[in-house]
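Weekly sync, protein design subgroup
Attendees: M.S., D.O., the rotation student, P.L. (late)

Item 1: inverse folding check
M.S. brought a backbone from last month's batch and wanted to see whether the design step gives back something sensible before we order anything. D.O. pointed out we never logged the input encoding, so this time it goes straight into the notes. Structure tokens as presented (335 positions):
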């Protein structure tokens, strides 16, 4: 076979593959474009992929992909989307100033134990289980979220529901609106405890009033703190106890510095609410200096706790967090 024929076949194969992706996974391309950093390239990409999604959806070309994803999620018992993407927030979930103030800590003597009083009064047992909701981005997916869910379900005190969305966060509601999703979920069912991990994808510039604002600037911190406070208000007003997981130490030093900025905001804002517990993970999953480490000694055995990407957890790493979290909840309830 001549070189020209080989090149032609290769080019044809690539062209067919591109057409296939454009026609049958336009939503995936649009999701990719949405996650791009704010700028001209993102705007151009969205102007192309947005109409393409509408065209393929109207022709039903996205049906095979949706059917496969739905079948896999059902078979695996996984729910990754909260649903109700087009619904507006429920009006009565929006806090008034009085309601927010009622959740803010007003005593230096306040302890986390006080937040569990409503749960103790419910006398949880195997016949009266606590409803636990796990929310988050990919950090609440495989490794961390799946293991917490599995271990909590095996415990006699918990019913568990988990919702995670890849590449989501609080800064990009145009991609996935956690404010709407959390509001809908918490009005569909009564949850006693919410544990959440969000923020991994927020360490980037944000668009504020039509202007791109660099990550970590004072304006960025102010706006992001406002978003975190709004989100905490929605969640904490509709459940008894909230655990906000701090982000773990990251392998990449630059990303780790960004994560620390996010964690500072999480800790500061959650401290304003009496039923919200900031739950740092660096002591559980980090080394003795609270820094990134891919391995830890677990029950006398050197065990990998982080995936090769230096961001997410292995199942064993997730198990460390799950065991600590479940033990703390049970200890607090039994006090």
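Designed sequence read out in the meeting:
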């Amino acid at each position: 076979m001549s070189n020209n024929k080989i090149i032609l076949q290769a080019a044809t194969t690539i062209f067919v593959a591109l057409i296939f992706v454009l026609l049958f996974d336009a939503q995936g391309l649009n999701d990719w474009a949405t996650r791009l950093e704010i700028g001209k390239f993102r705007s151009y990409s969205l102007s192309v992929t947005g109409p393409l999604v509408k065209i393929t959806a109207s022709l039903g070309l996205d049906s095979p992909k949706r059917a496969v994803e739905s079948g896999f999620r059902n078979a695996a018992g996984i729910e990754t989307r909260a649903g109700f993407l087009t619904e507006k927030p429920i009006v009565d979930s929006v806090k008034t100033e009085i309601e927010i103030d009622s959740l803010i800590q007003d005593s230096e003597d306040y302890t986390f134990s006080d937040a569990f009083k409503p749960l103790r009064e419910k006398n949880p047992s195997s016949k009266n289980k606590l409803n636990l909701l796990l929310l988050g981005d990919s950090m609440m997916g495989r490794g961390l979220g799946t293991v917490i869910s599995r271990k909590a379900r095996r415990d006699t005190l918990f019913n568990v529901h988990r919702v995670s969305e890849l590449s989501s966060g609080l800064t990009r509601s145009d991609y996935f609106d956690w404010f709407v999703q959390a509001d809908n979920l918490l009005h569909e069912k009564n949850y006693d405890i919410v544990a959440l991990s969000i923020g991994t994808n927020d360490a980037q510039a944000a668009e504020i009033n039509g202007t791109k604002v660099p990550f970590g600037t004072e304006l960025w911190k102010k706006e992001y703190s406002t978003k975190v406070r709004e989100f905490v208000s929605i969640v904490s007003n509709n459940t008894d106890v909230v655990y906000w997981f701090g982000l773990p130490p990251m392998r990449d030093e630059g990303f780790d510095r960004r994560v620390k900025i996010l964690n500072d905001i999480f800790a500061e804002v959650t401290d304003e609410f009496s039923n919200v517990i900031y739950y740092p993970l660096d002591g559980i999953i980090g080394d003795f200096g609270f820094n990134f480490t891919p391995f830890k000694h677990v029950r006398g055995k050197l065990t990998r706790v982080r995936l090769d990407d230096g961001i997410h957890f292995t199942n064993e790493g997730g198990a460390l967090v799950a065991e600590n979290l479940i033990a703390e909840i049970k200890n607090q309830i039994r006090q």
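Discussion: The chain has two domains: 3-64, 87-334. The CA atoms of residues 22 and 29 lie 8 Å apart.
Action: P.L. to compare against the previous round before Friday.
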